[in-house]
Amino acid sequence: MILKSLRSRRPLALAAALVIASVSLTGCGGSDPEETGSNGSATIRALLAAQPATLDPIVGARSAQIVWATMLEPLIAIDSNLAPTDTGLVTSWTRTDPTTWTFKVRPDISFSNGEKADAAAVANTITLTRDSAASQLKSYFGNVASIEAPDATTVVVKTKTPQYNIADLLTTVYLVPPKYYQEKGSEGFAAAPVGTGPYVWAGANAGRDISVKKNPDYWGTEATNAGITFTWANEAAQRLALIQSKSVDISFDLPPAQASAAKAAGVEVVSTETAMKIIAFLDSTKAPFDDPKLREAAALAIDRDAIVKGIFDGQAVADAGLLNVKPGQQPAQSVKADPARAKELVGGAAPAVQIHYPAAQYTNIEEVAQAVGGSLEQAGFKVTYQPVDYGTLVKRIIGRQVPGISIFAGVPNVAVPDYFVSGFLKTKSITGNCPDPKIDELAQQALEQDGTEQAAPIYEQLNTMSVVEKHCYVPLYRQVFNYATAPGVSGVVFGPLNTVDFTKTTR
């Protein structure tokens, strides 16, 4: 199989025309290259690959945190090793017994609308995360029995059974103001988010741009720029053209070809191996992959090394595991591509399989979907493609409405294996594609350990069971994320968990 020949054959002219029209209309948020704030600092113009599906962190996928995290803050901050630190809104935590955690909240913090960002607000946010029907993190907090705020700076979380990673989980829970969130609801909050962060909402043009401005009352170190205007262009060629023309200050998510072209043109490009991995999820609850033999055939048909080499020219990292959450880690056992065996397992039945993927959401995702489909066709499957926008795909997955294969990213916003176990493996998870009482039992055993190190052998067993034995997941690769900056732009801080700190960015 020659992956480079599997480029999309769907018409792209209309999509490209729409992108060009959108970019020209927005003028990249209407920000003139010399635009400055009242204090003389510039507004940073950031170009994304796709419009955020929602700016509500309770229900939104973490791919949109690049925008909302300018205004909202996680309950617990992390350090350069991705470990929780005491520098954020929550300043300390203790595990007073196996099922009780006590957290201390930084005093005298307010939301930008004046509400108090106290322990009651923290308890409310954790409760929303646990109880909201559409919560992205709902499955992670199902073991939480109670959340109380006995005073303005103390939150007590009790779990039904021991759970070692509660503090880790709070590093990806973003604080929302209780009264405002209740008044506006999810959609209303997403239309004008309010938080405690270094920036505040400055407005949006629907479908065109989103702007934030520096928060003059921020409790921490204030931003060095006046604000950020986010625009988006689905086509990588447009993102390259706009950074080359200096129409934007930062262009995110450049595929390898565009990154190389930018470098050749003298544009500064930063490449970072991220913790984000692209995974093919096989739904074992519906045909055709309710047949274990066909799941094995699909897993053996897909050659992740060929995808990395043929589509990314090596600018991605083939990854054969699911629960190896940090860059550089690989599992003890994995599945090796074996097209001949895959074809033998399929036989002459020609089972139909749909491949669902979020169009324009990830670098070269169209080509990746075509490559996966081409591999399955060579094994004897009859393949159809279902590209949809990211928000729609997430809603369908949560609603268990996606048969066949879903290709999307797993981002361990919490750098512990349980983030993927609770998100993907357990019966009551986001994907729910591989229900198995034994997996649920092992997942619970892992959480009851004293910490990640003690739980590591159980996670290795879970990885082997779900990926190597049951073939419910086909890990493909870790993304190497490229972004380009215009001349004179500095101070962008991009993290391996796909986070961006703009506060030190200048131009």
UniProtKB/TrEMBL annotation:
* Position of the signal peptide: 1-26
In what residue span(s) does the Solute-binding protein family domain sit? 88-428
Species whose genome carries this gene: Micromonospora cathayae
A Pfam family found in this protein is: SBP_bac_5
State the name under which the record lists this protein.
ABC transporter substrate-binding protein
Q: Which domain of life is it from?
A: Bacteria
Q: Which PANTHER family match?
A: MONOACYL PHOSPHATIDYLINOSITOL TETRAMANNOSIDE-BINDING PROTEIN LPQW-RELATED, PERIPLASMIC BINDING COMPONENT OF ABC TRANSPORTER
For this protein, the record's CDD domains field holds: PBP2_NikA_DppA_OppA_like
List UniProt keywords, sorted A-Z.
Signal
